Predict the structure.
Amino acid sequence: MPTSRHVSYSHNTLAIIMGGGQGTRLFPLTQERAKPAVPLAGKYRLVDIPISNCLNSGLNRIYLLTQFNSASLHRHVSQSFKFDHFGAGFVEILAAEQSFSNTSWYQGTADAVRKNLMHFRNTNFDYALILSGDQLYRMDFRKIIEAHEESSADLTIATIPVPAKEASALGIMHINRERRITRFVEKPKDPALLDSLKLDRESYAGLGVKGDEQFYLASMGIYVFNRDVLFELLDNNQTDFGKHIIPTAIDTHRVFSYVFQGYWEDIGTIRSFFDANIDQATDLPKFNFFDPPVFTRPRFLPASKINGAGIDHAVISDGCIISHARVQQSVIGIRGILREGSYLNRVVMMGADFYDSPSRLAKPENQGIPIGVGQNTRIENAIVDKNARIGDGCVLSPAGKPENMDHPLYYIRDGVLMIPKNGVIPHGTVL
């Protein structure tokens, strides 16, 4: 068979991206937006990752299933991913809806796909590629589809080797020599049970696993189904792929593992989100945004303007204005404005949806504080959401505070200070 880079599966593969649930663990970032719409690395959104992986793999028929706070996600996708009217490609949003046959919202990942089978049945495809909308990784999906074909699988699950300290929080697979999955345990806590699921060290070389420590194969939440198998396995009331569909399928169908080697991060908590963003400011980030490209909305903003600054390991997005400020190990999002004497250390600043105007500034709720970071303000270990207004002479840090707390002006989650979207921090605030 030709190598995957010479094979096109665009004509027979349908990609289905799960838009996620309420995203409670990412609150307050998900207070007004769906989890896949959360800004990432200055100018992107989380959903850009799976869509770009599809497009870079030659897959251009993509459905995105959404439910909670989906307005901003719909707007981003509709403004970002446009295809030739005469081509077959599309990124189409399927929002949860009530009908005569279904009066409830999505109850889980499998239920979300089941409630949209009417749309999928009207589309020609041999394979359904199920993806998550909130993971950070780069994968050539042609390789997993090719492996799926070669093993004559009914269902293939992408897995990644993880050490024991991470295994108890993930769904762990056990495979035989053919890479067929024989067992699946969701978040195994018992040490004896976990030990029974360990990956045979003699198989490391054949699977391409690098390292000497004991590894376990964790599900990445990426699945390839044969068309008829997908319809068959969803012909019931089971609601979740990981908890219900997959364990059942292992006993009744040919279910195989595709072992992925590379960086993969489930952006499920504020800490994982914060760390993944700050990592972009390092010399060699774990995730490469440069090549192949990650696609997003073209905003046609001007180049950023630096009016004197001290910048040490930072990502500066388009349309920013930085005036005699210091930035260290931070990410500055689009239209980010830093005023004279401000200092940011380990800060994810998401920027703004607009440049300020006299009419906006005059609104009473904005307290006369312009958008961005004020003069002589110091911020450390924080996420500053979009359109935030932070006054002059402020000191904002989670140091000395609980790991998690709520305040009228801010939140702390996983030890990270959070200034919410459209938040206003008065002049002279010291936290």
Remarks:
- The mean pLDDT is 92.
- The chain has two domains: 4-271, 303-425.
- The chain has twelve helices and 27 strands.
- The longest strand covers residues 215-226.
